[in-house]
């Protein structure tokens, strides 16, 4: 089981996917309705365990491996493990292990742990 923290609130998940679209949060395809998320100016995601894919305009921290892609338009990406897909941010820094796909930032730095 994967543990996901979003702005301090904890959720358990199978770890398939996490998506932030505007202020709407989806975990494994199910929308998480929460007034705090709808009113939040900034959202941050922290995952403990392996995850399939994550997408959103926010800072993302993953303490595990990723079997798919990690994408953010604006935000830093930190992954303690490896990525079997792509890692991409439009504006932000990327720190991760091995990446089998592409690793790209429009504005920021990329470092391998």
Secondary structure: elements and pairs:
Elements: E1 2-6, E2 9-13, E3 17-21, E4 24-27, E5 30-32, H1 35-39, E6 44-48, E7 53-55, E8 59-63, E9 70-74, E10 77-79, E11 87-91, E12 94-96, E13 103-107, E14 110-112
Parallel strand pairs: 3-7, 6-8, 7-9, 8-10, 9-11, 10-12, 11-13, 12-14
Antiparallel strand pairs: 1-2, 1-6, 3-4, 4-5
Q: Specify the number of helices.
A: 1
Helical content class: under 10%
Radius of gyration using CA atoms only:
13 Å
Q: How many discrete structural domains? A: 1
Cα separation of the termini: 25 Å
- β-strand percent reads over 45%
Report on the biggest sheet: 7 strands, mixed
Shape: globular
The overall pLDDT average reads 94
Low-confidence stretches: none
Notes on the structure:
- The protein has 113 residues and is mainly beta.
- It has one domain (2-112).
- The chain has one helix spanning 35-39; strands at 2-6, 9-13, 17-21, 24-27, 30-32, 44-48, 53-55, 59-63, 70-74, 77-79, 87-91, 94-96, 103-107, 110-112.
- The strands form 2 sheets. Strands 2-1-6-8-10-12-14 form a 7-stranded mixed β-sheet, with no helix packed on it. Strands 5-4-3-7-9-11-13 form a 7-stranded mixed β-sheet, with no helix packed on it.
- Strand 3 (17-21) and strand 4 form a beta hairpin.
Attribute tags:
1 helix, 7-stranded mixed sheet, 14 strands, mainly beta, 113 residues
Structure summary:
The chain is mostly beta strands. It is 4% helix and 52% strand.
């Amino acid at each position: 089981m994967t543990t996901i923290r979003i702005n301090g609130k904890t959720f358990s998940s199978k770890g398939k996917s996490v998506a932030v679209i505007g202020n709407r949060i989806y975990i494994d395809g199910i929308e998480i309705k929460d007034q705090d998320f709808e009113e939040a100016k900034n959202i941050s995601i922290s995952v403990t365990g392996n995850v399939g894919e994550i997408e959103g305009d926010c800072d993302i921290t993953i303490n595990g491996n990723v079997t798919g892609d990690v994408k953010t338009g604006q935000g830093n990406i930190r992954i303690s493990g490896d990525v079997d897909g792509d890692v991409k941010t439009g504006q932000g820094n990327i720190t991760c292990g091995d990446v089998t796909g592409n690793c790209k930032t429009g504005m920021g730095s990329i470092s391998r742990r």
